[in-house]
Design goal:
- The protein has two domains: 160 residues, 3-Layer(aba) Sandwich (Rossmann fold), CATH 3.40.50.720; 94 residues, ProC C-terminal domain-like (ProC C-terminal domain-like fold, Orthogonal Bundle), CATH 1.10.3730.10.
- Helix 4 packs parallel to helix 5 and helix 8 crosses helix 9.
- The longest helix is centred in the C-terminal third of the chain and has 22 residues.
- Strand 4, helix 4 and strand 5 form a beta-alpha-beta unit.
- It has 273 residues and is of the alpha/beta class.
- The chain is built from twelve helices and eight strands.
- Strands 3-2-1-4-5-6-7-8 form an eight-stranded mixed beta sheet, sandwiched between helices.
- Helices cover 55% and strands 14% of the residues.
- The structure holds 1,4-dihydronicotinamide adenine dinucleotide and (2S)-3,4-dihydro-2H-pyrrole-2-carboxylic acid.
- This is G10125 protein.
- Belongs to the pyrroline-5-carboxylate reductase family.
- Keywords: NADP, Oxidoreductase.
- It comes from Coccomyxa viridis.
Length: 273
């Protein structure tokens, strides 16, 4: 393997949905070359997917550890500790372990990987595939500011990343980790509304998705409070307030708050398993 922009080799243990979104994102943004990445998965179909975009697929987790410097643990939470114990003997001071598993604490990672390991916990989300992730990270074990900088470089190439105290990572999981699913539900419902009102499905879906994209951009780029931006859409006695009133009556606001809380609580639960 040669050296890409990050000048580190990146490995994925678990080549599922998130690993694919990250690997494709890193390649498309040019931060790591496909030839500097390696991925392992017991499922052949998943290895084939990685091979299809030129990332070397292997069967052995130990091989990923031997070849890579930054190792993403992208397996389901219950497999994190067993996988770390399996590869522990191959870990050296060159390695940085980046766990993206929901709920797996730095303490549990350290217990499985050993005292001397450089550990980073990241909670990303799937929009890294299109360069728009909202991610958060925290450091553990022997991870240094330099490790943090490398992880920041990777995730900044596919969106935004903030550093938080580990105690906030469950809330991040409930909000932005799981959040794309809530937004997809909203886009689907908006499009259904358009269809119900007579729009063709394809036009309705495009308008719904672009409306969410544009609205999110306005929040990020104007710095204005969403309530203020809402007021700009809402003409007195007009159409928007009629629709908005229905949303308030349906309890959608507390529905969304409760969704974030339920997912946060579930992340806490997973951390206690
Ligand atoms: N899907 C999402 O939106 C997000 C997922 N996460 C976290 O990312 C992790 C992966 O999630 P997904 O990609 O959605 O799951 P996934 O099920 O698509 O991928 C997990 C992959 O790990 C493989 N695997 C199972 N046992 C293995 C082993 N012993 N060694 C190597 N590979 C093994 C599976 O075959 C599978 O392809 C989870 O821990 C999840 O909490 C974090 C943020 C967002
Ligand atoms: O649903 C899950 O458990 C994972 C973690 C955050 C998003 N997906």
């Amino acid at each position: 393997m040669g050296l890409g922009k990050l000048e580190k080799r990146v490995g994925f243990i678990g080549a599922g949905q998130m690993a694919e979104a990250l690997a494709r994102g890193f390649i498309s943004k040019g931060v790591v070359k496909a030839s500097d990445m390696i991925a392992t998965d017991p499922v052949k179909a998943r290895r084939d997917v990685f091979e299809s975009f030129s990332v070397k697929p292997v069967i052995s987790n130990a091989e990923v550890v031997k070849e890579a410097d930054i190792i993403f643990l992208a397996v389901k939470p219950q497999f994190v500790a067993p996988v770390l114990k399996e590869v522990r003997q191959h870990l050296t001071e060159k390695h940085t372990i980046v766990s993206i598993a929901a709920g797996k604490t730095l303490a549990s990672l350290k217990e499985a990987a050993g005292e001397d390991t450089k550990l980073v916990r990241v909670m990303p989300n799937t929009p890294c595939l299109v360069g728009e992730t909202a991610s958060a990270m925290c450091l553990g074990g022997k991870a240094s500011d330099e490790d943090a900088e490398e992880v920041r470089t990777l995730f900044s190439s596919v969106g935004r990343i903030v550093q938080v105290d580990e105690k906030l990572l469950s809330a991040v999981t409930g909000l932005s980790g799981s959040g794309p699913a809530y937004v997809f539900l909203m886009i689907e419902a908006l499009a259904d509304g358009g269809v119900r009102a007579g729009l063709p499905r394809d036009i309705s879906m495009a308008l719904a998705a672009q409306t969410v994209l544009g609205s999110a951009k306005m929040v990020l780029e104007t710095g204005k409070h969403p309530g203020q931006l809402k007021d700009m859409v809402t003409s007195p006695g007009g159409t928007t307030i009629a629709g908005y009133h229905e949303l308030e009556k349906s309890g959608v606001r507390s529905g969304i708050i409760n969704a974030v809380l339920a997912a946060t609580n579930r992340a806490d639960e997973i951390s206690r398993l």
